[in-house]
Amino acid sequence: MSDELKTPLLDELEKGPWPSFVSDLKQMAPKKRMVRDLLGQLEKSYRDKRGYWKHGGLVGVMGYGGGVIGRYSALPEEFPGVSHFHTIRVNQPSGWFYTAKALNELMDIWDAHGSGLLNMHGSTGDLVFLGTVTDELEPTFRELTAKDWDLGGSGSDMRTPSCCVGPARCQNACYDTLALTYDLTHKYQDELHRPMFNYKFKIKMSGCPNDCTAAIARSDLGIIGIWKDDIQVDQAAFAEYLDSGMNVQEYVVEKCPTKCISIEGKEIKIDNSDCVKCMHCINMLPKALRVGKERGAAIVLGGKAPIVEGALFGSMMIPFMKMDDFEELHDLIERIWEFWDEHGKNRERIGECVERVGLAAFIEGIGLEPIPQMVTQPRDNPYIFYEEYYEEE
Amino acid sequence: MAGISIEQIADEMYQMVAESAGQKKLKSTDLTKAITSKYGDQVSKQDCKDAIKLLIDSGRCVYGYFGGSSIELPHKEGSAN
Prior knowledge:
CATH architecture of chain B: Orthogonal Bundle
Oligomer: heterodimer
Low-confidence stretches of chain A: none
Number of domains of chain B: 1
Mean pLDDT of chain B: 89
Shape of chain B: elongated
């Protein structure tokens, strides 16, 4: 890039062994005025210790209320290349599987209509196109849809549903996360594109309790794969772990949170009635242990990151739901939305709404029966007092 | 629905948006609650959704965002100047 633009503070971010977005931006700056001015504004922000972006305003393309995040520079005369720097969220394929052809199509579209910068992927899951001007929004959208892509969610709508790789690549998947993501995306197109809620609503699908999408922490509705029966055991494979010299006692047995594992001779014994499905033993001994055969999903509600109010973990709503078809889940989602619509406040996430009205009122409102599993964390229900608590006192 | 058309609901919603322009940003839920409380059982939530869809798809109103999503009259952004 030209010597005219000095970025001593950003240059610091290129030091060290890690890839640097600054190096990427510098590579593109000679070709794109937008990227060059982005570097300039960013350097100024670092120097002045303040941001120079204005966020929000009119968003979307014709008919859509989500998918475009309006952003303008507060210094358009100094950095005209980024006077508009809107973000476009592109609805990602389930499990983030792309073909090389699809990626090339996306890159061609974005090179022609935007900065060429992108983020794979944003925390919501979308592929994020970073930086374009208002006049390029509709042409970008037209080209995307002509290639069967669509915009994702933003604002007070159902955000783009996202999932882990599920059964496509993972033996732990307890249901087809990819199919469910596809199903919800198509069924709730209006909710995705036309903001109609009090605030955002995120749905994430993880195939097993490893929860690779962090559904329990990062989604309003987490659908996390689980099984009801016993962990499947291959004793011969387990004996091989022992014979290989692996310290199973230290790394598996003693790390079991409920101490439900023991070793007898060369066999592993699991008291499945005490198992809390933490996945540790299955992760450590993948050749010997498998998730059970009676599979479905647990539904947790109310997780969120710490915007507006503090962070929340999802609370257990349904400990086990079969996922053979998704009708029962659709019905639950719609009842939750109905309640939130009726009782929620502006900019109040569903988890905050439940906290405000109380869990009892909420589950009655959506027609669920209260059950002992409806707790924020397993085995941590404050309404159950075990004998040892009294003994300690 | 007895006697109240989607177009009529859309017109009433448009009026609300126009009257609040520059004073209050109305959300989808604000418009729906105002209409359903006015007409009660004569209007369903789905009717309100359809009316909002009509307003947006016709270009009479657009979605905006400022902390939350709102329905507004089309205008040029001050920031875009």
